[in-house]
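Hey,

Quick one before I head out. I ran the complex with flavin-adenine dinucleotide overnight. Inputs first:
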Amino acid sequence: IEHIDADVVVIGAGVAGLSAAPRLVEAGHDVVVLEARERVGGRLWTEVIGGTLLELGGQWVSPDQTALLETVETLGLETFERYRAGESVYVDGAGERIRFTGEQLPVADDTVAEMERLTALLDELVADIGAEEPWAHPRARELDTVSFAAWLAQQSSDEVACRHIAMFIGEAMLTKPAHAFSALQAVLMAASAGSFSNLVDSEFILDRRVVGGLQRVPLTLAERLGERVRTGTPVRRLEHTPDGVVVTSDRVVVRARRAIVAMPPTLIPRIDFQPPLPRRQHQLHQHLSFGLVIKVHAVYDRPFWREDGLSGTAFSPYLLVHEAYDNTNHEDERGTLVGFVSDEHADGVFAMDAEQRRERILADLAAYFGPEAANPVVYYESDWGTEEWTRGAYGASYDLGGLSRYGADQRTPVGPIHWACSDFAGLGFQHVDGGIRSGWAAAADVVAALDA
Ligand code: FAD
């Protein structure tokens, strides 16, 4: 086992940890980054599978994500626009396929009006509560002790409208059923993108991609950090005193003045802290859990749906694949569709064997885009639930009451230990942008502490 002395040890080489480290280096500090996996990037992961580049984790960039956009630019990476020309598809409760354009789903006029009313209501709450400190708002406890499903039912008797609004936050974002998270947690999710309107606007939230995949961001950051980044070093133990830490991983022991733990908060309790963390930290980590979603990639010899005038965008709260998009790579002849199967639907298809599951999921893509969709040349399911160092997707969120009760403590340092992750409240919450912001914030705190 190798022993290293450093000023700061960063645990986790996801985008949060890899955004913190360069700031510390710029401020003149020695940094070591310890990463459990044999690769960097965490929930950003690009692989060539069956001859096509697939983004197995996070991929989209939206115009409000200025920390990510700044990073992409600084690293000299290029972006391209998601293909969106043509008509979108919606499948209704009777299984009928309806083509439409624009953001408004083709549902009954009174349901459209009701969805617009609920959207305005959520936009108002978002404007009032914000992304940074939702727990500090006078209505925090009230909104945090009712499930989003129950809250929607209180606001509207139009079940179809409620079901669609629930889908945008539940299946599509927190990847939990809307009975399993609070209205306040839903407001935070929307606030992360500036407004609920932004969050549900696929033109906005799914705007661009990075050429070569979004994992280029952590890969390039790590490349620049060079030998400071050690992969294959899962951290098992963290001993701390007010003056510093000793961090033990499988291959390296680092003695440092400060630590930044840049891991999903749900995995933090797997580290043996000595002395143990304070009561508030123990409690708050137990009130967070990961959602679950299968990201399905289907690659075809050409983007055949475009010939039919379709954009590749599709929605239905009635199908297992609740949303799908054209995910064709930059300057690629092959066409790729990406679809998502979320929360309890994911449980359902995971209970099937792999062949059945593939058939069932492709049947939904065929319901959206026609029979050709059932026969891809490459089919792949991103299954983050089985990833030892993640255990779900996209991110972690609080149970009922957890955000208002514990949120204020999520980033509070414990002695020399600081925290960073996209799963903490803030702009870009549960997105790469939020991970970068949290890394920058933790680095600034550490620099200030070291300079004091
Ligand atoms: P992570 O990426 O989870 O990084 C934490 C790191 O810590 C990991 O590398 C992990 O291996 C490491 N680690 C864990 N335990 C230990 C240990 N004991 N010792 C050492 N290292 C450890 N976001 C978007 O902005 N746009 C999208 O389109 C998008 N789509 C997504 C699709 C999927 C399928 C998924 C899974 C996520 C998506 N996201 C998206 C979310 C985004 O990927 C994450 O919010 C972000 O990448 C998280 O970064 P992070 O650094 O905070 O955490």
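The CA atoms of residues 40 and 219 lie 7 Å apart.

Talk tomorrow,
K.
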